[in-house]
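User: Fold this one for me? It's RNA polymerase sigma factor RpoE.
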Amino acid sequence: MDSTSESLLLRLRSGSDQRAWSTFVELYTPLIFYWARKTGLQTNDAADLVQDVLTLTFQKLPAFKYDAGKSFRGWLRTVTLNRYREKLRKKSIGATPATQSVLASIAQPGDAESTWDLNYQQALVSRAKELLRHEFQASTWQALQQYVFEGQPAAIAAKENGLSVWTVYAAKSRLMSRLRETLDGLL
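Assistant: Here's what I get for RNA polymerase sigma factor RpoE.
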């Protein structure tokens, strides 16, 4: 999960795509909050840092140049850590050796973060499914749930929901296309 959807970033750069910004906030707030909490901040302070990072990201994205060879997530992590350091400087706390150690561990993700990344990826897929659910009729969504996510045969899912098997196949194709579009580069 080292890249971010180029199409999402392009839509964000325009500055006028409210839906893209909402998607970005929903997808990245938990990750930024995780990094903020990992620095040792209390919940309220971490939430403040998240808001600062989102505000700064909103301001900087129009000038952001997407490079497929680099990680947007890495850039976002750097922005988060720099905002945290700035908060420390403003409070005149400075970076103690313990703080430096925490910052180094955030800057260099390890095995624990890989586990967290897997959980985050699963959460992204769940959130994307939620966002796409409204694009399908209830019976079609139920058939997709049974067929795609629960592994039930398409014929059974179709029959139980009063659909043709081809309708289920077509809906799966549309769902997978929309999931790829929504999650492109995020996983």
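One thing worth pointing out: The chain has two domains: 1-109, 112-187.
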